[in-house]
Amino acid sequence: MMTHDQIWAALDRLAARAGLSPSGLAKRAGLDPTTFNKSKRVTNDGRERWPSTESVAKALAATGVSVDTFAHFIESSSRTVQVPLLGFAEAGSGGYFDDGGFPVGEGWNEVGLPSVNDEHAYALEISGDSMKPAYRDGDVIVVSPGAPIRRGDRVVVKTKDGEVMVKELRRRTQKVIELQSLNPAHPDRTFPTAEIDWIARIVWASQ
Length: 207
Known about the structure:
434 Repressor (Amino-terminal Domain); alpha+beta
């Protein structure tokens, strides 16, 4: 039997897969931006509030995700796996990633999160407010080094100089990578491809 927590966790995963926050997913679906927010999931008197069939259908149409895939999100939301966890501020330090951006070495903690289809997936805990409104201090993002990356995806990027950042991929060619900032107060970035150590897609976020 599907539970209240499972359906909302599946919607969160749907949003993360599209590189969106819950409010961003609602806006893309043509709904009120607060439709999928946490404040809408429980009534003022503590009763569980379920998303409407219409709102879920619009979210699926907006993201191009099938009903079968969403059903898998619901099913897998009841299962958790332990993935390596690292503070975002530490990600630029040496010894935590190999040349391909896969987690290695010691110093990682672990956290139980919804199952992801990448045995090399890992989690980063956001610190500070530089990624608002997409991610806030304390949010956890799951990164999949093996996931395909497309234009518009939210990604974690590490440069050859050791700088690690979360951005949206605007354009990627053989010579250059253009990244859009998630926070309008911070500038967009452009790098020669040769200056990028690795880039990996964000597939889930705890929001």
